[in-house]
């Protein structure tokens, strides 16, 4: 398969936001590619980087920006889904619980979620909730992918450590998962993620318009 050197999703458009599982029926039937992770892990930034559209998803220095399930529709017909950031310390207990419930129901009820990118800030340890999300994906036949974000903040030694970390988790839980180290700031790993999305969805012919 031949790809254009730079695979962009240049005409991706915001399509809808959902705040409650009762509204999941509004989600279109085409394949979904989700982005999940702790607040501030860089989900919205990654979405903007892979689409090459800076203002598409809202990025914020203060955690807790994305509270809804936000859908962005690509020209190729599938949807990128920016999911609410969890683990936000300033969120009230009730707010956090309802966000986790929304996420849980999204993973368990939405049938056309094909790939779930699980983002973890590269400077943090691999957290337990993310491990359990990988296990949920396996049960639901969703393809889990781990993305360690903000790679620009790591030195060489930390980069090596982080790869070992992923291998250890894989061995421990017995589920292999693809794994990327990326930076939305300097572009590292971004094109690999784009290619992975096309491969996973079986999109073989990528003709780019610029
Ligand atoms: N250095 C560096 N900073 C990044 C990178 N990606 C995101 N950030 C910064 O991290 C902060 C959070 O980024 P967001 O993309 O808003 O994170 P999020 O996961 O969508 O956060 P919520 O919407 O709160 O869940 C912002 O200040 C970004 O500029 C990266 O690759 N490198
Ligand atoms: Mg966000």
UniProtKB/TrEMBL annotation:
UniProt KW Magnesium keyword: yes
UniProt keyword annotations, A-Z: Cell cycle, Cell division, GTP-binding, Magnesium, Metal-binding, Nucleotide-binding, Septation
One BP annotation, GO: division septum assembly
PROSITE patterns: G_ENGB
InterPro entries reported for this sequence: G_ENGB_dom, GTP-bd, GTP-bd_ribosome_bio_YsxC, P-loop_NTPase
Names of the cofactor(s): Mg(2+)
Entry function: Necessary for normal cell division and for the maintenance of normal septation.
Similarity comment: Belongs to the TRAFAC class TrmE-Era-EngA-EngB-Septin-like GTPase superfamily. EngB GTPase family.
Record's protein name: Probable GTP-binding protein EngB
Taxonomic path: Bacteria, Pseudomonadati, Spirochaetota, Spirochaetia, Leptospirales
């Amino acid at each position: 398969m031949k790809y254009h050197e730079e695979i962009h999703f240049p005409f991706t458009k915001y399509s809808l936001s959902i705040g409650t599982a009762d509204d999941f029926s509004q989600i279109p039937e085409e394949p979904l590619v989700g982005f999940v992770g702790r607040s501030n892990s860089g989900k919205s930034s990654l979405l903007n980087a892979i689409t090459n559209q800076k203002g598409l998803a809202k990025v914020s220095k203060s955690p807790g920006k994305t509270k809804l399930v936000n859908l962005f529709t690509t020209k190729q017909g599938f949807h990128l889904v920016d999911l609410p950031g969890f683990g936000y310390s300033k969120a009230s207990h009730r707010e956090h619980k309802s966000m986790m419930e929304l996420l849980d129901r999204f993973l368990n009820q939405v049938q056309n979620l094909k790939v779930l990118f699980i983002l973890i800030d590269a400077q943090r340890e691999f957290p337990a909730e993310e491990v359990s999300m990988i296990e949920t994906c396996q049960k639901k036949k969703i393809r889990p992918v781990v993305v360690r974000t903000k790679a620009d903040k790591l030195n060489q030694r930390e980069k090596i450590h982080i790869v070992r970390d992923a291998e250890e988790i894989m061995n421990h839980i017995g589920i292999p998962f693809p794994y990327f180290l990326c930076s939305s700031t300097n572009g590292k790993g971004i094109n690999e993620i784009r290619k992975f999305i096309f491969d996973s969805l079986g999109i073989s012919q990528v003709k780019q318009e610029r």
